[in-house]
Structures are given as structure tokens and as C-alpha cells.
Specification:
Layout lengths: L12 H12 L22 E6 L2 E8 L9 H16 L3 E7 L7 H8 L5
Length: about 120
């Protein structure tokens, strides 16, 4: 995993994407016994890492199993918390629903990324 002492200019974004995916893919769905990977809720192609000022921007998009999923906010918050545990002070995190994947996408995205939560 990314070391807090590691120089940000000396890492491989693709490797970091793989490490993030390995971290979040095994989160279990709140209603089903499968993981988010098994349900195609998260995929490696929906994770990106880019330079962001003196830090990095980590973005992850996810697709709920149904467009009216009542637990989409919970899934997004689980992804956020899992990522923040490993990347808390060095990165800006954006966790969002994939565009067009949920009936209340804008509201859910706002809740997931609300700094007050």
C-alpha cells in the first residue's frame, strides 16, 4: 500500500489503481452475500488516480445493482471509509455513482461526498 513517507512523484498511478481496487473489491454488498466485485458494482476501470496540487485525486465510480437501490448511499460510504482508512491525509477522494446508474444519482453523490457525514 502507499507509504505516507513515499515521495508522491515516485509512484506508479496504475499500480495505485490496482491496489485501491484490491482494497475495495472484497467489500460485501449490504443485502447480498456477494462482494462488490462479484456483483459488478466496482471495477478497476472505474478507478482513477491523478495529480492534484501537491497531493493526488483518487476517484472511484460504482454502479448499484438496480437503478433504485435503496442502499447506494451506504455502499458509497463503505467505499469512502475503506479508502480513507488507507489514504486519509495524502489524497482527495471522490466517490460517485456511475452516470445514469441510479434514479436519485445527484442526491446520493451529494450524501456520499458530504464532508459533514
Amino acid at each position: 500500500m502507499y507509504s505516507k513517507n513515499m515521495d508522491k512523484t515516485n509512484f506508479d498511478c496504475e499500480t495505485l489503481v490496482e491496489e485501491i481496487y484490491d482494497l475495495v473489491k472484497d467489500i460485501r454488498d449490504p443485502e447480498l452475500p456477494q462482494t462488490l466485485e462479484q456483483l459488478d458494482v466496482v471495477s478497476e476501470s472505474d478507478i482513477s488516480v491523478k495529480p492534484f496540487g501537491d497531493s493526488l485525486l483518487i476517484s472511484i465510480q460504482f454502479t448499484p445493482t438496480v437503478p433504485h437501490c435503496t442502499l447506494a448511499t451506504l455502499i458509497g460510504l463503505c467505499l469512502r471509509v475503506k479508502l480513507e482508512k488507507c489514504f486519509q491525509h495524502k489524497f482527495k477522494l471522490d466517490v460517485n455513482l456511475k452516470k445514469g446508474s441510479h434514479s436519485t444519482e445527484e442526491e446520493v453523490n451529494k450524501q456520499i461526498n458530504d464532508k459533514e457525514r
